[in-house]
């Protein structure tokens, strides 16, 4: 698949000149719509895109996603992935990367703390201890937010598959792009709250619809209609089905004759009592 866009026109020339040995990767949503660009070696680009899209290999050896086809062509990477899903997964990956950076900085601060203690510098040790704790908390916050966005991305993928992505959801993703640029976790947190609220509303609507459909299909029919239908079916089926019906007991011929004889005997006894 070829694109009509020249990758050299997507980035400043001075920036391209500095990327000696690396390649320009153009991320496309379609052949005419660009999602973004990346500069780097193949391994770096693959690392950045890791977990952003789900790859699988076809029997022909092509790399594809569950959403659509991904084609690697020269220094292009063409991805047919919805913007909102790509941006969510990319944001989760970026937050996870920041969590690792903070974790690394925490270890560095702890090492500086140890060195300061060895030198007997209590005040410097206090500063490094505070820095280490702060970086630890930042790492945990980034990690929690990354996991939350990743979970939302999974629900978005399901919604996209079912064609249930609402305009409100797409608006939240666009708003989150600016929040991610400034790494404003409080704003990202609020946007995730809005996102989950949209999903809750969607779930409530689905549950209400399913409940209404269930109510209309599972209400008990009036008993007299049920009995009438059973009797009608039994009449059409004849005695064989009637013998199986608890309410339609059929006496055997011998039993009927015995019952008639008993009635005659009772009549004779009653007549004798009246004569007396």
Automatic annotation (TrEMBL):
Protein name, as recorded: U6 snRNA-associated Sm-like protein LSm5
Instruction: Extract one GO molecular function annotation from the record.
Output: RNA binding
Sequence ranges assigned to domain Sm in this UniProt record: 11-86
What is a single cellular component term in the Gene Ontology annotation? spliceosomal complex
Extract the Pfam families matched here: LSM (PF01423), Snf7 (PF03357)
Q: Which residues form a coiled coil?
A: none
**In UniProt terms, what function does this protein have?**
Plays a role in pre-mRNA splicing as component of the U4/U6-U5 tri-snRNP complex that is involved in spliceosome assembly, and as component of the precatalytic spliceosome (spliceosome B complex). The heptameric LSM2-8 complex binds specifically to the 3'-terminal U-tract of U6 snRNA.
Sequence similarity: Belongs to the snRNP Sm proteins family. Belongs to the SNF7 family.
Alphabetically ordered keywords of this record: Acetylation, mRNA processing, mRNA splicing, Nucleus, Ribonucleoprotein, RNA-binding, Spliceosome
């Amino acid at each position: 698949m070829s694109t009509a866009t020249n990758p050299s026109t997507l980035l400043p020339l001075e920036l391209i000149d500095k990327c000696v040995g690396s390649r320009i990767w153009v991320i496309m949503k379609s052949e005419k719509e660009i999602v973004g660009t990346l500069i780097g070696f193949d391994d770096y680009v693959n690392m950045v895109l890791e977990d952003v899209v789900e790859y699988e290999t076809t029997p022909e050896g092509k790399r594809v996603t569950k959403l659509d086809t991904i084609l690697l062509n020269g220094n292009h990477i063409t991805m047919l992935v919805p913007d909102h899903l790509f941006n969510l997964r990319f944001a989760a990956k970026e937050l996870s990367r920041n969590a690792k950076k903070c974790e690394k900085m925490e270890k560095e601060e702890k090492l500086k703390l140890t060195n300061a203690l060895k030198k007997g510098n209590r005040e410097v040790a206090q500063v490094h201890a505070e820095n280490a704790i702060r970086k630890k908390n930042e790492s945990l916050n980034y990690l929690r937010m990354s996991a939350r966005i990743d979970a939302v991305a999974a629900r978005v993928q399901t919604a996209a598959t079912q064609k249930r992505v609402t305009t409100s959801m797409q608006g939240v993703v666009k708003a989150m792009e600016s929040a991610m640029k400034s790494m404003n976790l409080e704003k990202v947190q609020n946007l995730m709250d809005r996102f989950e609220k949209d999903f809750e509303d969607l779930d409530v609507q689905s549950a209400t619809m399913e409940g209404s459909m269930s109510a209309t299909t599972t209400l008990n029919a009036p008993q007299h209609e049920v009995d009438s239908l059973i009797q009608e079916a039994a009449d059409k089926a004849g005695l064989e089905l009637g013998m199986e019906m608890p309410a339609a007991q059929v006496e055997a011929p011998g039993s009927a004759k015995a019952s008639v004889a008993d009635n005659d005997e009772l009549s004779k006894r009653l007549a004798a009592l009246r004569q007396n």
